[in-house]
Amino acid sequence: MAKSASSITLNQLRYFVRTVELGSMTATAEELFLAQSAVSTSIAQLEHAVGCKLLIRQRARGVVTTDQGSTFYRSAAGILAAVDEAVNQLSSETLTGTLTAGCFTTLAPFYLPVAFENLTNTYPELSLRISEVASEQISQKLTRRELEVVLTYGFDYGPEVEFIQLAEAPVYAAFGESHPLANQSEVSLEQLARESLILLDLGKSTNYFLSIFRDAHLSPRIHQRFESFEVVRSMVARGHGYTILNQRPAHDLTNDGHRLIRLPITDSRSLLQIGVAIRANESPSKKAQAFIKECREILTSS
């Protein structure tokens, strides 16, 4: 039976939330420069206050949440976020607390490091935790409050997620230097449909790339599928087919030193939206707004 919540402290909630996220009391203690016993005692007091077991201690394997612990974690994380937001509203210059943000896997190498650097330099008191996420994880992680905001593409994430467009990215075709089409100044979808496609195979991204052909009533010849952006680029550069992409690295060399040729697709009007996903019907916090603003500036300047 649950007891009075009056004895629960914010530190207890913070230690519990971070332990759930890290999966270890020892890791929490190290991150917060505390003794492990202090974290363990604090969480034990929290469990006593709420009247149920929240974590299961596993010898040499950290901790996992109970069913009640998983439910309590989402509420506790929301409480801490609300406290941080209340403090941040008092100042227009600084941000404190923790922002949990996500970045879609293929966008992460291009935008995540610079966003992290710029935000931490501008707001040194803000703890920024950014993780890579697949498109299929975004809705769940937002609705479970594991993430507050995600930099991603404008796919359909369901009614519980709102997408805010920040920029558009035109698609292009990429070839190895020896490919017969590499010497052209542009290429058509009809030409591409006759060639071997090396497909970037990442859930919703896959559907998007294939929809470009469907919209033109064409069927591509899929030769190979890979989940890695760089594997796709390397296979293409070595002459095993072409690919369609939208992200543009700073140079055309692959990791193994081969060169790609990029060509515009003349008859594709498809533009892939890039923006942020947030929880629908909920205003983003001041921290999330700072993240969105930084992403907009990076995207519009690239």
UniProtKB/TrEMBL annotation:
Gene Ontology CC, one term: protein-DNA complex
Domain HTH lysR-type per the UniProt entry, residue ranges: 8-65
Entry keyword set: Activator, DNA-binding, Transcription, Transcription regulation
The UniProt record lists the keyword Oxidoreductase: no
Keyword Metal-binding: no
Molecular-function GO terms, alphabetical: DNA binding; DNA-binding transcription factor activity
PROSITE patterns tied to this protein: HTH_LYSR
Pfam entry (one): LysR_substrate
PANTHER family to which the protein is assigned, alphabetical: HCA OPERON TRANSCRIPTIONAL ACTIVATOR HCAR, TRANSCRIPTIONAL DUAL REGULATOR HCAR-RELATED
Family according to the record: Belongs to the LysR transcriptional regulatory family.
Listed name of the protein: HTH lysR-type domain-containing protein
High-level lineage: Bacteria, Bacillati, Actinomycetota, Actinomycetes, Mycobacteriales
